[in-house]
Amino acid sequence: MHRPHQIFQCAAVGKAIARLEQRLAVRLFHRTTRSQSLTDDGTLFYERCLRALEEIRSAETLLESGKQQVSGRLRVSMPVLFGRMCIAPLLTGLAREHPGLGLELSFNDRIVDLIEDGFDLAIRNGTLTSSSGLVARSIGDHRMTLCAAPEYLQQHGEPKSLEQLTQHDAVTYMRAGVVRNWLIPDSGGKVQEVMPNKRLQMDDLQVMADATVAGFGISWLPCWLPCWLVRESLLKGELVRLMRDRPGMSFEAHAVWPQTPHLPLKVRLAVDTLVSKLPPSLAQVEKAL
User: Alpha-carbon distance 267 to 237, whole Å?
Assistant: First the structure.
């Protein structure tokens, strides 16, 4: 049996919905004597209202960020070298600004399950796979470059075309046992896939760079500055960029986190920090090389 105040509340809600339908000039609910269900217009209106509420919550969180210090522990998963060289310095800088913020940084090139493994945030490079329940935001682009040691080029010659490139030895990156083809754009932007002789296959980018400097073959490596992998080797002349007339292949880096109705302040500040501070440092690559 309904209590009087429950009947009153139901009647008040019904009147409010009726007024809303009259104002919008649409029917929001299918009504029977036993049930009510949303119409197509009602579903559309409901989804838009949810988005509006989320924007309001986001705005409130953004205002809160300027009024209070962040607290709690932020767990972040990131690729080993990119995380160590580029991401970790920015996040530790954020922790310095907020003494109440603790960091737990995990460096691993495998793709973690954020929800199952309990991470607040993950950094991922390249094309994202579709994952339900996750939200992603671009934090910058990284460009790939073909490079080799001068000693290797003296012995084997410098490739001037993709056909010549396929005849060379390669130091390649292996992930989960798979070596993916190199993606090389032409002057018109059309991407071609090539793969030289896979002399060395490795799942560690730093060892790849070291082997390339040692003259074992040609590598297709990230060349971000000021923090990324082959900067010093290129500037010192230990490595030489190849096919400079071709545009470099670029991949996006993303921050990824579990979808939630109310994004925690610590996650929002971490993502905003990466979005604002990472791209300016990566943009120096063309100026320095």
Answer: 40
Residue type present at position 65: S
> β-pairing, 191-194 with 182-185?
antiparallel
Exposure string of 252-273, with b = 16+ CB inside 10 Å and e = fewer, is ebbbbbbeeeebbbbbbbbbbb
Mean pLDDT of the residues in the chain: 82
User: Do 165 and 227 touch, CB atoms closer than 8 A?
Assistant: no
Report whether pLDDT(42) > 70.
yes
pLDDT for residue 284:
57
Model confidence band, residue 225 (pLDDT cutoffs 50, 70, 90): very low
Compare 189 and 153 and report the one with higher pLDDT.
Answer: 153
Least confident of 68-72, 80-84, 235-239: 68-72
Q: How many beta carbons lie within 10 A of that of residue 147, not counting itself?
A: 23
Q: Give the whole-angstrom CA distance, residue 148 versus residue 94.
A: 37
Could you tell me which of 256, 252, 266 has the C-alpha nearest to residue 121?
Answer: 256
Instruction: Round to whole Å and give the CA distance between 37 and 43.
Output: 9
pLDDT at 130 over 90: no
Helix intervals (H) in 101-191? 114-117, 150-156, 162-165
- Beta-carbon contacts of 240 under 8 Å, excluding residues fewer than 6 positions away, are 147, 148, 149, 150, 153, 158, 234
pLDDT mean over 230-259: 84
Is the CB of residue 216 less than 8 Å from the CB of residue 169? yes
